[in-house]
Amino acid sequence: MAEPLRFPRTMGNTDALLWAMERDPVLRATTAAVTLLAEAPDRDLLIEKLRRASLEIPRLRQRVVELPAWLSTPVWVRDPDFDLDYHVRWVRAPRDGSLRALLDLAASLAMQGFDRIRPLWEIVVVEDLADGRAALVQKLHHSVADGIAGLMLMQRVYDTAADAPLRQAESAEPAAGNDSAVRLGLEAIARRVARQPGEVRARAGRLLAAARSPVQWTRDTLAEAASMLPLLTPALEAMSPLMQRRSTRFRFESLCVPVDELQAAARAAQCKLNDAFLAALAGGWRLYHERHDVEVERLRVLVPINLRGAGGARAAAGNRLSLARIPIPIREPDPRRRMREIHELVARERARPAATWMEPIAALLNQLPSGLLTLALGSLSRSTDFVASCVPGPADPLYVAGARVDTLFAFGPPAGAAANLTLFRYVDEAAITINADAAAVPDSDVLAECMRDGFNEVTKLA
């Protein structure tokens, strides 16, 4: 049974930042997924499933409207001209129908910005791939959902059996509403007024805590502020001298690793799967820099940390995450020692109280003039060497409109970094993807080879 999702009318401050980043095309926050299918899905069935999903999931029929920043973050409103045929298209497989040709097509689609007056998603069904296979190439703006929320959305379209019955749409066709600028502005004012009592109580609570224990309150406040420094400390350039340039050109690469091998390697070093993942990436980056005769001690990685817990916070759409910006070691040749050091670094970051500051900091940034905001976000992003994300996917086989899902690849946006590397677990396979900025990494095929060797280094510990 799919978990119900809540869809707030307004963007959270983190979602609003991801939306604002789009003003700089290099920072574009488009997530992409490639679902490799054993055969072509049933067209009529897929369209009907998506039609019903669009009735159940408001975001699929909503577009973004911006209000003055002092009044509200952007709001989601129903698109009166919603057309499912615009968002779902069929194409023949490019070139020889290989995985390489499919990834090139997916990268070209991901490079294209969304039409900002329409809902922020697209699906392209690719038929006639090699060996009779097919694929779905999905695009979703990051302001709509993070990785965990994306999985919840996926539950509405993907099935656990080839002959699963159609889900009954839980909502009827939405009636036309009054989403005029005046009404949206009045709603925003009403929301601000409604929040006032809670904000006053929160301020009173902080003042009371400070009065009761001023020393402890000061210590806690300074600790929380200090925990944000690694994320907000200005850095003029990335740590790798090899990967300084940035562009709007993407290149997709992929490789697969058995999950049990990666988990066994993590256990051998008394670490977690995410530590093994990061240690393998560090090894791959070391090998890549050695190929180019460049010595680097550390690279700056941006790691999203999931903040979803039990209850309502878990079931909310949008982004519920904190960010850790960690300079990780890449020169250590021993994978066990490398993994242990990375484990300690990540554990230290997770223990910081920075998560409580993410929304307030995002709220302050959203008040900046657009030019200054883009400059600040661009500085932080371009000084990041790479983004790394580990997403726990479905443990059971899935089907799409009768077609079996063979592999699921998830490509996160570089968003100003040199590359985004994502691990997506599906059944017993870890699909590792690389979304590389072609200016920073012009030889992404070489990087993919080095990453494969990096994973081989780590899995030998199993």
Describe this structure in words.
The chain is of the alpha+beta class and 462 residues long. It has a domain at 229-387 and 435-459: Chloramphenicol Acetyltransferase. It has 14 helices and 14 strands. The protein has helices at residues 13-20, 43-56, 84-87, 99-111, 147-154, 181-212, 214-227, 229-232, 259-268, 273-291, 335-351, 358-366, 370-382, 444-459, and strands spanning 30-37, 62-65, 75-78, 88-92, 121-127, 134-141, 250-258, 298-306, 321-329, 386-391, 399-400, 403-411, 419-426, 429-437. The chain is globular.
Brief descriptors of the model:
six-stranded mixed beta sheet, Chloramphenicol Acetyltransferase, 14 helices, 462 residues, globular
CATH arch. level architecture of one domain: 2-Layer Sandwich
Helix count from the secondary structure assignment: 14
Average pLDDT taken over every residue: 85
In N-to-C order, the SSE pattern is HEHEEHEHEEHHHHEHHEEHHHEEEEEH
CATH class of one domain: Alpha Beta
Low-confidence parts lasting 5 or more residues at pLDDT below 50?
A: none
